[in-house]
Structure formats: structure tokens, C-alpha cells
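Table S2 (text version). Query chain:
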Amino acid sequence: MKDGESMKGYIHSTESCGTVDGPGIRFVVFFQGCPMRCAYCHNPDTWKPNCGEMMSTDEIIAMYNSKKEFYKNGGITCTGGEPMMQIDFLTELFEKCHQNNIHTCLDTSGIMFRENEDYLKKVNRLLAVTDLVMLDIKHINPQEHQKLTKQPNEMILKFAKYVDSKGIDIWIRHVVVPTITQNDHYLFQLGEFIATLQHIRALDVLPYHTMGIVKYEELGYEYPLKGIEPLSKEDAIKARNVILSGMKAALNRHD
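Corresponding C-alpha cell output:
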């Protein structure tokens, strides 16, 4: 890349009116590439890395600025896929957002986090221009997480702690799947973990849905959760209450 050139990254798509991707109305950038293989993923077309549309950070900022009055209470959210697979591009984008007074939200699984010195320098540079982290915790139990996502959860939980140590707002997301994460024991444990974080801004407990089945069929993939019914909103509310009870119990122990 020549001096003064805008860095380019692999982008799956963009959405100009995101209402569930952070505070306010947001411009949402879906990054291409993800190492997770979540059984309930509804975007399997974002898994493959190094493909999709090549876009520069300047192009994305220009797309945002063309409708910036629309986003006056929102900002830009980077999601995926997994944005931290392209951490250098992501960081340059967020730095330009801050130069333009644009609120930045990172929607991540945290799976890319590592504790070596060189990587932490990159993470620190990224977090310095990140206003909000939306962290998807797929499963609190290490063995069950591995079964559900084909990846361990150790670094994800460490990433949560690291972000919290930087004083950055965290918005937890958790999908409740019948027979998998719809389990009071695990939900309570998740609440206990969340209670260790000081900068929780919100908790989204999302009911499992089957809208991704069509994409799996189009891609020729077998859908992993065939036969599991969607979770009702009522059951999602019950699950959220169990998580909150775990948080409360943990906080009471430390009073």
C-alpha cells in the first residue's frame, strides 16, 4: 500500500439502516471471513475469508457521510463474519471514524484475541478508537462451546475481561437455543461471569430462529440444527431472568 492510500478489506455487504446493532440508527459493515462454525449461524456465506467485495476505509466513510444526518444518534457498527480477522483494516476504519466524530461499535465473538505482546499492541490501538463492544458469548461451558462453535471459549472470555479492563462499554449478546443453551445451569453460570465485568451497558438474550436454513440450502451445506424448533420470546425472557439471577447472586456474594 502506497503512502496516503486507504487500506482495503474484504466486505460481505453493508446495511444502511441498522436498528439492532448498537445505539441509534447505524450504518452496518459486514466483514467477510469467520473462524467460528456456530451451529445456529444465519450468515454461513460470511465464513470464507479473502473473498467478497474489496472496499477501502475511505469508501466506507464516504458511504456513511452521504447519509450522516440520518445517523446523528447512531454511528458505524462492524460485524461479520468476524471483523477482528482483518484487525489492521478495522483499526484504520475506526480511526477515521473518530477523526469524523462517528461513534464506533465492534460486534465480535472475541475469538481472535491473543495475549502475545505484538497482538496486544494491535488490540490496544483498535480499542483506543472503539466506543462500544458488542460481545457474542455463544456458550459459557468450554466443552459445550466447542461442540456448538467448533472453537474453544477461553480467549473469548479473556477478551471480555481485557475490554472491561480498558473501561470500554460492553453489550453482551447470547442466543438461547432449545436443548443447547436453554439450560438454567449454564444460563446462571453465564450471569455469574457477566457479574465480574464492570462496564456492562446492555444484555441481549436472543431467541434462536431458523431463518438461516435457506442460506444453508443455497450453499449446499447441511443445516446442523435440523429439527430444533425456534425459541419463543417468552422463553427468551425466562432465560434472561435466569442470567440476571446469576449476576445478582454473584454480586451479592461480593457485597
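Notes on Table S2: The two ends are 54 Å apart (CA to CA). The beta strands are 8-18, 26-31, 53-56, 75-79, 104-108, 132-136, 169-176, 200-207.
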